[in-house]
Each structure stands twice: as structure tokens, then as C-alpha cells.
Specification:
Blueprint lengths: L15 E8 L6 H13 L4 E6 L15 H12 L5 E4 L1 H5 L5 H11 L3 E8 H5 L7 H7 L1 E5 L14 E3 L9 H9 L10 H10 L7
Parallel strand pairs: 1-2, 1-4, 2-3, 4-5, 5-6
Helix pairs in contact: 2-8, 4-6
Bound molecules: adenosine-5'-triphosphate and magnesium ion.
Length: 208
């Protein structure tokens, strides 16, 4: 499977190549942005969507999540200056638990002449088989995996993925929430407009 060369449809129109990078983004950070920007470059994608989970059902109950609205606002602030990288509210619009398979299906309907590339960090890739209707996911997209420091990124049996090398950044939202709570520096780990928004919205003050 050749991913780097954009293909042509029978009508001759080149399909729009869309990267779909889903997450909780609580908060978005440079690991997300560097991944989105570099996968876009490596695969000649037209756009990469940072798809904000409305209800990240695998995380619900494990900790207090910021509201979907606040997480979307942070992602919008994070990508505002980035060409070809967009915040997507498609899962907030749909409501309820956020299943990637539904999002891929909806994007195919919205953009019939498109090729979808699902971008996953290694930890997300390893858990693919725990998702809703995992068999269907691969029907709608090509799966792209990026390595994350300290994570063995194998896709479960039955899935085929292409690996894209991006600069590895050892940063996570979990660590950043803790940094925010202890007033440790966030500069250069989180885009500046997002840092302002975090303090404006009063997020992460009581994180343990
Ligand atoms: P948390 O620590 O709260 O789980 P996170 O940093 O893992 O947050 P998520 O919103 O859970 O961020 O992740 C969204 C997507 O981004 C996942 O596919 C995840 O693997 C990927 N990702 C997160 N951080 C990085 C990073 N530093 N490098 C590459 N991919 C990353
Ligand atoms: Mg995560």
C-alpha cells in the first residue's frame, strides 16, 4: 500500500486526504501538534482534524474530565495558527459517547471524495481492539501509528497499520495537568494561547 502518493479517482478528481486525529485533549500539547503537523507533511494530507471526544468513554469515571466545550476551545486555540490543522467538533455535535467508527462513517458521508487516515499514538493503537466495532474502523480509513516515548506501539492482530516517524516528545496531558496544578512551567509544552485559556477558565487547579 503506497500512502505517500495521492491517488486519483475514476473521474480524475484527486480525493481529499484527511487525517483524523482523535483525543480527549485535556489539554492539547506539543506532542499532539508535532504529530499532526508531521504526519500531514509525511503523507501529503490536505487537512488534519483534531477531533475532540465529546465523551471519552474509556476515560469517564477514571478522573474528572474538563468539559467537552472547554477542551474544544483549547484545541481551537492550539491550532489557530497552524495551516492545514483544524479543530473538529463533530463528536460534540453528535453527542453521547464518542466512538471513532461513527466519526469515520460521518466524515465519509460529509466528504465522499476523501481518503481518511486515522492517526494514533502508540498507546491508542495498542488498544484498538477494545474500541466500539473495531472491525469496521479499518474499513473506513488507513491506520497510521506514531511512536510515543516509552510505549510499545503494536496494533492488535488483524489490523494493518503504517508507521510514520515523527519527533518523539515525552509529554502527556496527564503530566501537564499535574504541572498546572502545582504551578510548574507549561511554556513550550502547551501552545501559549492554550496556557492563557487554561488560566482564564480556571482549569486543573485541584488536580491531584
Ligand atoms: P492523557 O495523558 O490524559 O491520556 P494524552 O497526552 O495521552 O492525554 P490524549 O488526548 O489521550 O493525550 O491522546 C490523543 C492522541 O494523541 C492519542 O492517539 C495519543 O496516543 C496521542 N498522543 C498523545 N501524546 C502524544 C505524544 N507525546 N506523541 C505522540 N502522540 C501522542
Ligand atoms: Mg492518552
Amino acid at each position: 500500500m503506497q500512502l505517500s502518493a495521492p491517488s486519483e479517482t475514476e473521474s480524475g478528481a484527486r480525493p481529499v486526504r484527511i487525517g483524523v486525529f482523535g483525543g480527549t485533549f485535556d489539554p492539547p500539547h506539543i506532542g499532539h501538534l508535532v504529530t499532526a503537523i508531521n504526519v500531514r507533511y509525511a503523507l501529503s494530507l490536505d487537512r488534519v482534524l483534531l477531533v475532540v471526544a465529546n465523551e471519552p468513554w474509556q476515560k469517564v469515571g477514571s478522573r474528572t474530565l474538563s468539559s467537552a466545550k472547554d477542551r474544544l476551545a483549547m484545541v481551537q486555540a492550539a491550532v489557530a495558527a497552524e495551516e492545514g490543522i483544524e479543530a473538529s467538533d463533530i463528536e460534540l455535535q453528535r453527542g453521547g459517547p464518542s466512538y471513532t467508527v461513527d466519526t469515520l462513517q460521518a466524515l465519509r458521508t460529509l466528504e465522499p471524495n476523501s481518503e481518511l487516515f486515522l492517526i494514533l499514538g502508540g498507546d491508542a493503537a495498542a488498544g484498538l481492539d477494545s474500541w466500539e466495532r473495531p472491525d469496521e474502523v479499518a474499513k473506513y480509513c488507513q491506520i497510521i501509528v506514531v511512536d510515543r516515548p516509552g510505549v510499545l506501539s503494536e496494533v492488535p492482530p488483524g489490523f494493518t497499520a503504517e508507521r510514520v516517524a515523527v519527533p518523539r516528545l515525552e509529554v502527556s496531558s496527564t503530566d501537564l495537568r499535574q504541572r498546572a496544578a502545582t504551578a510548574a512551567p507549561l511554556q513550550h509544552l502547551i501552545p501559549e494561547p492554550v496556557i492563557s485559556l487554561i488560566s482564564q477558565l480556571g482549569l486543573y487547579g485541584d488536580e491531584q
